[in-house]
Amino acid sequence: MTRAAPDAAPDIPGLVYRQPLGSGGYADVFLYEQQQPRMPVAVKVLKREGLTPTILRQFVDEANTMAQLADHPYIVQVFRSETLPDGGAYLVMKYYPPPNLATRAKRERLSVEEVLRTGIQLASAVETAHRAGITHRDIKPANVLISQYGAPGLTDFGIAGRAVGQEEHDEDVGVSVPWSPPEVLYGQSNGDARSDVYSLAATLWHLLVGRSPFEQPGGDNSAYSLMPRIRATPVPQTGRADVPLSLERLLGHAMAKKPDTRPQTAIDLARALQAIEQEQRFARTPIVVLDESGHTTVADSRGQAAPEHTDPDRTSVRAPTVTSAQSYAPGPASRPATTETDEGPPPTTISGGALLAGIGVLMVLLVGTVVWAIGFRGGDEPSDLATDAPSASVTGGQGEPVVDIPQDVAIDGRSVSGGVTFLWNYAGVRKGDFYRMRIAASEAEVAQAEVTTVRKLPHTVPAKSGASVCAQVAVARAAGATSAYSPIKCVKGG
């Protein structure tokens, strides 16, 4: 017997209503069964109560946006959408069985390997949206569904924005506070690629811990309490012994208070996550993105050797499959080469006596990648690196960079007449090193302080007697490599 649809679930030709799936602020989601071909589908239906032209327009934009990105394996596929005679609307999507990632993170402890894999897959989806000129603006665990094969599906593009030069709405952007960056919460930005990077990193932190980064168990976690913490409090450690320091640093770097000091693109974040996979000897997760021609390709990180069957005069890009990105790193047999090209130098065929030399080059590249990945963040302080992305200071084989990043910066200070003098030390001092300092009147204000370039130490900051001066420092090199910031040191002026 066909189950009758409730009042909120519309009668849709070719679909039979089965049951409710969930409800949000402005829409309900129901399970239907498509009749030809027979399969379950999820139908998102606008609520009639409180419906405004703005909400309806956002709903239509969501349908168009998701349809534009529907071919991506980690974005929920849209089959059709329609506006109803009474002014409502519905959206028919691929069905993902419960639970979503928010529910899973509450129920179980996700492994580091799964979180890294999920992060790379979601970063692939986000990068693809960005290349299409679309900013998601609401990335959070509840907006990540999981297919029956374990693949994530990014959904809810209802408040997605278009890049500059395309149509943009004038209304205020609704946000999900716990996973949103400071510049969006405080109205300095409506969101861009760097804000999506922040939200994705906050989502991964949530998956590791089971709550959002600045939520305090048992404390006041209202929006008004969370917002100042997000703006001024350093990103906390996950507290998990199995989370490597490199991942702690990367998440802190990606949730930096200032957008300019985060990874600037989702694919940068994906490649950093891949480097941690390599460091931990986990199975490799491919990065699936749209290439410059608009074709979906698998773009692995730079410096990877091609399979033996690949044409040695070009770099291979493999055709994407959902299975290959789940729990193992596909070999040549499961990832056929295409004629697309990827970034990085062409692979060199190694044979005979050159084999040992080739292995040596690969080891140099691996070490360089791991050093780059673990150098993002140290301690609990915000990691707003005030420099461009690291560039090569030593060159390995095939022209690949091996970045030499200063480590373990420690800062100290003492009161002097008329101010405070700061000194610091770190491992691997090199001629030509210079320094980025952030100085403020309190520890909470340091993260938002302007960066001062210092060429020599010690460095004295003028201050009235008894006035507090707080500072932290990062070491920079002419080649572009920059350390994580030191812990914050506060001293009262003499």
Features:
single chain, 494 residues, alpha+beta, Phosphorylase Kinase, domain 1, Transferase(Phosphotransferase), domain 1, Immunoglobulin-like, 3 domains, five-stranded antiparallel beta sheet, four-stranded antiparallel beta sheet, 9 helices, 24% helix
**Any idea of the CATH class of the largest domain?**
Mainly Alpha
**Number of spatially distinct domains:** 3
CATH arch. level architecture of the largest domain? Orthogonal Bundle
What oligomeric state best describes the polypeptide chains here?
single chain
The overall average pLDDT, rounded, is: 75
Determine the fraction of residues in helical runs and give it as a percent range: 10-25%
- Report, as a whole number of angstroms, the end-to-end distance: 85 Å
Order of strands, widest sheet:
1-2-3-5-4
Q: Strand fraction band?
A: 15-25%
User: What letter string, H or E per element, gives the SSE order?
Assistant: EEEHEEHHEEEEHHHHHEEHEEEEEEEEE
Q: What's the CATH topology name of the largest domain?
A: Transferase(Phosphotransferase), domain 1
Structural class: alpha+beta
Number of strands: 20
What overall form do the CA principal axes indicate?
Answer: elongated
Work out the radius of gyration.
Answer: 25 Å
CATH homologous group name of the largest domain = Transferase(Phosphotransferase) domain 1
Largest sheet, strands/sense/barrel: 5 strands, antiparallel
Uncertain stretches: 163-173, 301-359, 361-403
